[in-house]
Amino acid sequence: MIGTTAIKECAMPTILKNDFYKGVLRHGDVIIEGSHTPLVNKIVFGKVQALLKGNRMRGEEDGI
Questions:
Q1: Is 9 helix (H, G, I), strand (E, B) or coil?
Q2: What's the pLDDT at 2?
Q3: At 64, is the pLDDT very low, low, confident or very high (cuts 50, 70, 90)?
Q4: Residue 20 near residue 34 (C-beta atoms within 8 A)
Q5: 4-61 pLDDT, tens per residue?
Q6: What gap in Å lies between CA 18 and CA 26, rounded to an integer?
Q7: Dist CA 22 CA 38 (whole Å)
Q8: Domain encompassing residue 35
Q9: Would residue 25 count as lying in a domain?
Q10: How many domains does the chain have?
Q11: For residue 52, which of 17, 21, 23 has the smallest C-alpha distance?
């Protein structure tokens, strides 16, 4: 829960894949460095993406 708003579990992968958190902005295929301070560094962001990809691949193998 953030403040008084609950985040649904199914929304978490979408949130965690958002490039904004590593300091970049994406519009279609165009990616630019943002002027905002990244919420996580690019190394941590990359590790999260690898974990998400691994979870997705295991889910496909398990028939989920």
A1: helix
A2: 59
A3: very low
A4: yes
A5: 678 788 888 888 899 999 999 999 999 999 999 999 999 999 999 999 888 766 655 5
A6: 9
A7: 5
A8: 9-61
A9: yes
A10: 1
A11: 17
